[in-house]
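Appendix B. One record, verbatim.
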Amino acid sequence: MEQGGLRWWRYLAILGILLLNSCASVSYYHGAGEFNTIVLDAGHGGYDMGGRAIFGVNEKTLALDIVKRIAEALRSKGYYVILTRDSDVFISLDARTSLSNSTSNSIFVSIHTNWTGSRRVHGLETYYYASNSRRLAANILKELSTVYSTPIRGVKFARFHVLRYNLRPAVLCELGFDSNRSENRLLQQPAHRQLLAEAVAQGIIAEAEGRIP
């Protein structure tokens, strides 16, 4: 009985080591430059329009256009980029997160435009859930702050599904309010969306290089 119990505890110890090793293989990266792939997520899509712009195209279209521009900017610098969607289709939150979780050595960046019932509210903000995603969110927001003069609403903690259930460093970016007349006017302009995309891309590159915002 004693020998059997000893064998049982040895078995549990070995199983624990195996589980720890398997978890390590899907853990977050722990330092600068340890990712070589960026999973870009255009919010909403298909029947989910996202925020309804005061005029012009809605959030789902704006987000996809900006994501494609970010992808082009990053690929021109040699980064490997994966899109959760590259057309006007609906992708579930679980599917977006699963794609990120199955991509090793990667980070996840979700792109949105913001909306609120008050047309006075405006500004830029980025969100994170895991503590080691905060610097990525800060680097991106720092670059975005140079695009145009608008309130910087800050780097914020949030429990959004695509952040909370992501095994990779993950952030969500709100690139202005399409419910605000002034910011929506800018978001409807391709040249402004290009500036936003380049800023996000530069923030990602800054994170890869280990910069402290």
